[in-house]
Amino acid sequence: MMIEVKINGKPAEVPAGTTILAAARSCGVNIPTLCHHEALEPFGACRLCLVAIDDAGRQSIVAACNYPLEHSGLVVETGTSAVWQARKMSLKLLLARCPGVKVLQDLAREWAVDTKDLLLTEDRGEECILCGRCVRVCREVIGKSAISFAFRGVERRVSAPFDQEPDACLGCTACAFVCPTGAVKVIEQNGRRLIAPWHSNLEQVACKECGRAVAPLKMLAHLRGLAGEENEQAGEGVFCSRCRRLKTAAAVTALPEVKFPGPFMIP
Amino acid sequence: MEQIIDKYRGDSTAMIAILHDLNAAFRYLPREALEIVSDRLSVPLSYLYSAATFYRSFDLEPCGEHEIQVCLGTACHVRGSERILDALSRRLGIKPGETTADGKFTLKRVNCLGACALGPLVSIDQKHHGHLTIHQAERLLEAYKDEHD
Predict the structure, then answer these.
(1) What's the gap in Å between the CA of A248 and the closest CA on chain B?
(2) Which of B46, B48, B53 sits opposite A147 (nearest CB)?
(3) In the structure, what pLDDT confidence band is assigned to residue B147 with cuts at 50, 70 and 90?
(4) Architecture of domain B66-147
(5) Average pLDDT over residues A156-163
(6) Do A152 and B53 touch (CB under 8 A)?
(7) Taking the domains of chain B in order of start, what are their residue ranges?
(8) Inter-chain contact B53–A151, Cβ cutoff 8 Å?
(9) Which residue, A145, A218, A129, A228, is CA-closest to A179?
(10) Which of A28, A137, A152, B89 has its CA at a distance of 20 to 30 angstroms from the CA of residue B134?
């Protein structure tokens, strides 16, 4: 069922259940986000996507990323002064927690947020804004749930169970890939892959040709499992992407030359 | 262990209830217990760890013989429960969340025991003691010490 809403004064028609964020983006209205990721369920953690809505006279400020548009007539405003005031406050709170994070600093500059009163906050080197992207990608996409939120209030953090190397972790680094701040650090050395915040420490499979680390054995075994192959062979005959390309190229060059019958003519 | 899980017929929605029962049985949640629950309920270990650290009623370290909960909910807080907590903390020589070296007492700050009219409220081994003054709280602690010596 299609419904009609108004976004910044312009009418828009979207399927019922579309989030405000998706509806706005579909008609070219940009709403800032940090915790949102196309591949993940909405979470509503960063509060940077706040917008003003008017639902038949009932006004409020809501997170656009997880507000589903269910019926016609809703009026959305994405750039009022109240909206910007709320977003700037959210950003300031994130900055107070993580003063050293570049993506936050850049936004603060772009939005001309007054950060004078944040000068007093001590930079404890915290880079995690608790957006939950890593937790969600591990659960929703990888299906492993190796990490989760732990503790509550000011102590809330993302952690592996018991803050020890998680059995469930494949070392796929999807968590690092989706992290918006760079808080999830991955170190590759001596044939092992370390994911620092979770204490993951995985053996890598070496390329059969050049010996460079390709991927963790556990991850390859998981992928072979998904493909219905035997796990025992997980680490065998694996080439890195460069060597695989070189081999393919060599194989193609070795093919007998094909003779074309002269220049192609258009009759 | 098995009995507790079987009682809930391996229902994963009973996760919190199972954790409550296990915490009561062991006086904390041993890692091995959470691993078994994770296995039996097909719930990721990370979910259990998340819940076990989120709720104050779960412990990941073994608790003392007697569990002292000082309520710091809003009503108790405005009636000075913070000072009662400080007094008990001094007298036991431990910080909130810790257990005395002899393993007798664990001191905890909790967020609301749900009996606001009785504030400031201290619960020892699930027995509520309401309308306490600092002095009364200290005497109560001494009585527990004597009684169980």
Answers:
(1) 41
(2) B46
(3) confident
(4) 3-Layer(aba) Sandwich (3.40)
(5) 97
(6) yes
(7) 2-54, 66-147
(8) yes
(9) A129
(10) A152
